[in-house]
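Sample entry (606 residues):
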Amino acid sequence: MIRSVVMFQHLKSAKGLWLRVLFCWALGSTLPFFDEADTYDLRFRLRGAQPAAKEVVIVHLDQADWNAYHGPSAYYLRAIKEFAVPSDSFFWKAETWDRLLANMLAQNPVAVGVAFFFSQQLPSIDSRFTHLYDPRVVWTGQLDSEGRPVMPLAANSYGYNVALTDLREDEDRTLRRFSATVGPLPHLSLKLLETAHLGDPQRLNAFLGETRLINFRGGRSAFRSISALDVLRGNVPADFFKNKIVIIGSASLPSHLFQTPVGRLSRAELIAQVVDNMLEKRWITRISPWVASGYILLILLVAISILTTYPQTVGFVFLIWLGLGATAFSLWIFDSFYLWVPAISPLVTLLIAYVILIGYQLSVKENQTWRLQQEKQLLSELDQLRNNFVSLISHDLKTPIAKIQAICDRLLAGQVTEDVRDGLGSLRKESVELHRYIQSILQLSRLESNSVQLRKEATDLNEVVEKVVEQLGALAADKRQDLHIDLEPMFSIEVDSMLIQEVVMNLVENAIKYTPNDGHIEVKTQEVDDKVIFAVCDSGPGIPAKDREHIFEKFFRGQAVQSNIKGTGLGLFLVKYFVELHGGEVFLESDIGKGTRVGFTLPLQA
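Predicted structure, serialized as tokens:
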């Protein structure tokens, strides 16, 4: 129940986003209804040639071949014909056609389709030309203005060897579709499959009355072809026509040429494309606009998820990948499964979504910026109150601590018993430790309030070290430690002497704390190239490897937490901060049971 309420509140708070998503989807869903109805030509050009049905071959009968076979004396009107556009009748000569068909039928093709229409007004056919009436040969017929069949010259008595070659172009004069209308004569593509017994009659009848998008397998070279001149002269490869569907047409007659998505193709080549689609069942199928709408919604949801998850620049790059992926998917499914999935509509939708979502994100970020400014101001005030409180309390604690130390010093200077002296010494020691804690808290408060400012001055690092060692000498003497200094003469450097003294104090004091009684501590300074190096080496227990990478973190104490050594875990954090504030670096080397070497390097010049 609680989860449902939270989800409802989240959706309610993001209603502005979802309204924009619905708007993008509504706009993108309308595109498939109007977009890409006749503009898939580019896909075929990008795809290139594809494997076509090997059962189909083409014979090209062109004017040059016809004239080369018959010679110039065959036509007494040759001079006139050279300046006139020839028609199908130009290619009629019964003897030539009988020889052409005889050479083809000798290799036993399953069907031969003639894409030329030879009117019955031409000279009649001699009875000796029997190959013209072979049952495997189908001739092209026509329909008159009233839709009645006009039989060709070689039609048999019942017209069973006659078919139509009607091909209808789109409004832009480009042929993309095939439709087999119901009429007195079948289409040549259907008749060829019926003659070749390669198609189920019931399945072939399903094409009647339907319009289908042709899946073009390529241009002029998609199907095997041969010139009619080579066939007439017997220059035909063995078994070239065996068990094949042969389509005879012209590639030079203007009436036989059509503009297609893959270029200009002849009527015979177009019929071959249709026969290929029927044989292999690879018509182009467009998905319904409703399925396209769901597909666009899916892409849109992925895009919204990307844009609301990643920064604007990264989201834009991912959006480009998504658009390229959607386009590649559309092309792949088109090539592999012949499904027409919109490619432009998703890209336009993604562009619209990006523009709208960027505006939405800008408004959301503007609102968030205003809220953050309000919260920042509130947090700044709270932080200032906290810092003031800490500073006030810390400063107020300094006075009583100083009084405690003064009283202890005065009493220790007088005549007191040994027990009282030990107690006063412990009290004096603890007050010093408490003062160090307060100093660390004040320093941390200054860091978090960004009020630390460097006051650089020429400073002798060796003098700072000597001063610190002098102050901490008594602490080392209490533990009978050998505190040795090895200071190399060096020039003064520009640093904040107070902060560097705090750094040296923390490092030397830590070495004294964690080195056991009778241990050895060495403090060294040296100048190497353009750097000043300060190091403290002790004979303590060492630092475990797992703790070394965290040793400079705030409030981290590592193994010291299990020991009796007191500390806040702020000393080394302040060391690292102050050193890096001067442009230097800290270092730490430690071996378990052998000791630790810790220190820092500072540049000679700022």
